[in-house]
Amino acid sequence: MSIPVALSDLATALADYPWGYLVTVSPDHRAHSLAVPTDFRDGVLHAIGGRSTNANGAARPAVTMVFPHPEPGKYSLIVDGDLEVLDAEVVLHPTSAILHRPALG
Asked: What structural domains does the chain harbor?
């Protein structure tokens, strides 16, 4: 089950998620994940990307961030968006967000 999160409510939703995985796609179409702290300012997510994340994001800017809830069994937050690569920093411009229920047992 998924619950849509309005982009105007994203800052509030992110308050419960101290970190997330930034998922990019490599040239051979494999997912590349980078764990980063949550840094949401002025309607966008900021992170420090590594060499692979920056290269992947520059070539294929449609990315996803997955924020697992720190408490087991709680909803994860999934944010899709467009990645902008600025030197070492990457900026995710969110386009949609959902809360997703874990499929446990």
From this structure: 2-100 (2.30.110.10)
Residues 6 or more apart whose Cβ sits within 8 Å of residue 89:
46, 47, 48, 49
Q: Model confidence over 30-73: pLDDT tens digits?
A: 999 999 999 999 999 999 999 999 999 999 999 999 999 998 88
Tokens of 47: 């992170």
Give residue 95's region: left, alpha or beta (phi > 0; psi -120 to 50): alpha
Unique residue bearing structure tokens 């590594």 = 50
> If residue 57 lies in a helix (H) or strand (E), which one and from where to where?
helix 51-59
pTM for this model (two decimals): 0.94
